[in-house]
Design goal:
The complex is a heterodimer.
Chain A (H helix, E strand, L loop, with lengths): L1 H44 L10 E7 L2 E6 L11 E4 L17 H7 L4 E6 L11 H20 L4 E6 L1 H12 L5 E7 L9 H6 L7 H8 L4 H11 L3 H11 L4 H15 L6 H13 L2 H4 L3 E2 L2 E2 L9 E6 L7 H4 L2 H4 L5 E6 L10 H5 L1 H10 L4
Helix pairs in contact in A: 3-4, 6-10
Chain B lengths: L1 H5 L2 H24 L2 H31 L5 H34 L23
The chains are: A alpha/beta, B mainly alpha.
């Protein structure tokens, strides 16, 4: 009897608690619904935050290639300049979002002299650009210009995603310098382990020659679709989440920044894409140590400079299995792999990166930049 | 705290959406690693690419007949703009170099910071 009464009282207490809680929740949801309507109109009638606004000069531009020099923000800089090599599918402003969320700004304030090799969409007549143009021409040309502009022989190179692959190939071939340090973010080596991409590009069904011969450059829509297919539900869910959080200015700002970047995909030069498919996706030459670029051997085992590889714990684009071979393979004695929380993008940009990757990189690079 | 969260319908809804997303992605990823998926995807992709190319050619002819600029002509204009931009950049770079030279000659300019920075000591922050 007593136990039954106690249970009834507990039930009564719980229902009273729930009732008050639900009332509060309804009130808060009504307020949010009103805010959503107002902010929803604002969302469609305004543009997103201005990205990539850290002051910079175009040091050189040639076709698809742009070399920027960012204006220093410190009174004293490290001797060794830093060249960032962006992934060829994406725009460099992911590393230069808004003030306070900009990796570039962070580096400048920490006293680095920063250059970036960024890409624009290759034009139809640039369809013949191949891997050798990127590795034996564009990167060496930029390194030479950084040397000239800074007056320093040594250059540190940071490569993000496929920019990391290009940097690795460059570092393998030009292993006697002038690259002094190499930092790779989420860089794949074993392309078989990018299982979905490997399946999309299955040589039995994917006729890359026919595709490139008919379209010229690889269309950005196809690249975007292949990225989105890795997580097919995520786009819809992110839009639902945007609607739920549209009352929250910070959430909307962040959503707009990342959404704009994620959908702002560059086409890839036809021959370059053909080479990536055949040499890396099909023959896995980087992993097998049989890669050549323009007839020159490009084996990552020839890299001797200090190297840091940052990988993300929840990277759905470059899974750890695809990236883990980099550090064991290089000949460098000063080498480190660091796995940080986050995904392929949140590793390098956003609040997670501010807290984790950026300070780690600064600690590692500062002592190697004098 | 846990009780409060479990009785919050909005939190439950968000949790459900998150779980559905994970579940659907995992299910789709399983399906997408099959060779059959690759075959169907590439068949469809090949057809789309072919159709896209044919449509592009047709559109080009249509635009010419309507006396409108074709894509090739727009690309031509873009090329010229890019070339002008390139030349402007060269002028900027030359001005920058001249500025640098002037700064070295003790004339007003934007001198660069010295490359003498040292890493912070293990205990303290370098400013």
């Amino acid at each position: 009897m007593n136990a039954g009464a106690a249970q009834e009282r507990r039930d009564a207490d719980n229902s009273a608690f729930d009732f008050a809680s639900v009332q509060d929740r309804i009130q808060s949801e009504v307020q949010r619904a009103i805010q959503r309507s107002i902010k929803g109109v604002e969302y469609f009638s305004t543009s997103g935050p201005m990205l990539g606004s850290t002051p910079k000069d175009v040091l050189h531009a040639r076709g698809t290639m742009n070399l920027y020099h960012y204006r220093p923000l410190a009174n004293e800089v490290y001797r060794v300049p830093v060249l960032i090599v962006m992934a060829t599918t994406n725009r460099g402003y992911i590393l230069d979002m808004v003030p306070g969320m900009s990796f570039i700004e962070f580096l400048l304030k920490r006293g680095y002299d920063v250059y970036m090799l960024d890409w624009t969409a290759p034009r139809p007549e640039e369809r013949s650009l191949a891997m050798e143009d990127y590795v034996l021409d564009f990167i060496p040309d930029c390194v030479r210009r950084v040397q000239e502009d800074s007056g320093e022989q040594d250059v540190s190179v940071i490569g993000y995603c496929f920019g990391g692959v290009l940097s690795l190939l460059y570092g393998s071939i030009f292993n006697e310098g002038p690259m002094k340090n190499l930092i790779c973010f989420t860089t794949p080596v074993d392309f078989r382990e990018m299982k979905l991409f490997a399946n999309f590009a299955d040589r039995r069904y994917f006729d890359v020659d026919r595709l490139i011969d008919s379209v010229g450059n690889m269309p950005p829509e196809m690249i975007l679709s292949s990225f989105e297919m890795l997580r097919p539900a995520s786009r819809t869910v992110s839009q639902i989440q945007l609607w739920e959080n549209i009352w929250n200015d910070e959430y909307v700002k962040s959503y707009r920044m990342f959404d704009r970047w994620a959908t702002d995909i560059l086409p890839l030069a036809g021959e370059y894409f053909r080479g990536i498919t055949k040499d890396l996706m099909w023959d896995n030459k980087l992993y097998n140590g049989t890669m050549t670029v323009g007839g020159r051997k490009a084996d990552i085992a020839d890299i001797k400079v200090p190297i840091l590889h940052a990988v993300a714990e929840h990277d759905h684009i470059v899974p750890y299995e695809a990236a883990k071979h980099l550090i064991p393979r290089v000949a460098s004695t000063d080498k480190e792999e660091v796995m940080l929380k986050g995904g392929h993008v949140s590793l390098v940009a956003g609040p997670n990166a501010v807290k984790r990757l950026w300070p780690k990189l600064d600690t590692w690079l500062a002592g190697r930049s004098t | 705290m846990a009780d409060k969260k479990s009785s919050d319908p909005v939190a439950l809804w968000q949790q459900m959406i998150g779980e559905m997303e994970k579940g659907f992605n995992a299910f789709a990823n399983k399906a997408m690693v099959s060779p059959e998926f690759s075959r169907v995807l590439n068949q469809a992709g090949g057809l789309t690419a072919g159709a896209q190319k044919q449509f592009g050619d047709l559109m080009e002819k249509y635009l010419v007949s309507m006396n409108l600029p074709s894509r090739a002509q727009m690309i031509g204009v873009a090329d010229r703009l890019q070339s002008i931009e390139g030349q402007l950049n060269e002028v900027k770079a030359m001005l920058h170099q001249m500025n640098k030279g002037a700064a070295q000659g003790a004339v007003a300019g934007t001198p660069r910071p010295p490359r003498t920075r040292q890493p912070p000591s293990s205990g303290g922050e370098k400013k």
